[in-house]
Amino acid sequence: MKNTETLAKSKALRNARSMTDMLKGSQVLQKTYTYIENVTKESRKALMEDFSQNHKGIAINSASDILRQTVLDWFPRRDPMLKLVHEKTNQGKPGDVRMDFRGETKAVRFKVHLHAVFAVNGQSPDSPSFLKEVNLSVDPREFSM
């Protein structure tokens, strides 16, 4: 009888430990990737709505700066534990913008890539522009601890 009780207590203790064990590194990376991927999908809609309401017809020469700041403002509002820093901006043809951001959570570092297309009315740098599409993406190979 006493042996059975000891065995049951030992099993209960092992189960309690396994519930509080830290996730393995690969599990943390996978969970964080899935979460960040969902947040970036959510951000697409929010950024499109924000631009259509607050930044209609902005000058094309200031569009990328406003978009960068909008992204940097949106992520901490969505989740204060997400830190995002702008790394670089590439502008190809007028209205085509690509940005890279470095992000981190408590345990994981990652990169977010943004591609935006603006419709531009005119040829001058201060021609009005409208955000046509924005896409944020993450790559699981760019997640590290």
Overview of the molecule:
The protein is an alpha+beta fold and 145 residues long. It has helices at 2-20, 25-54, 60-78, and strands at residues 58-59, 83-91, 96-104, 109-120, 128-137. It has one domain (25-142). α2 (25-54) crosses α3. The longest helix has 30 residues, at 25-54. Mean pLDDT is 86; it is low at 16-20.
Q: How many strand elements?
A: 5
Low-pLDDT runs: 16-20
Average pLDDT over all residues: 86
The SSE string, one letter per element, is: HHEHEEEE
Give the N-terminus to C-terminus distance in angstroms: 48 Å
Structural classification: alpha+beta
Question: What is the subunit organization of this protein?
Answer: single chain
What fraction strand?
Answer: 25-35%
Largest beta sheet: what is the strand line-up?
1-5-4-3-2
Backbone shape: elongated
Helical amount among residues, as a percent range? Answer: 40-55%
**Helical segment count:** 3
Largest sheet: 5 strands, antiparallel
CA radius of gyration is 22 Å
What's the short story on this structure?
By secondary structure, the protein is α+β, with helices and mostly antiparallel strands. It has one domain (about 25-140). Mean pLDDT is about 85; it is low at about 15-20.
Task: Describe the secondary-structure layout.
Layout: H1 2-20, H2 25-54, E1 58-59, H3 60-78, E2 83-91, E3 96-104, E4 109-120, E5 128-137
Antiparallel strand pairs: 1-5, 2-3, 3-4, 4-5
Helix pairs in contact: 2-3
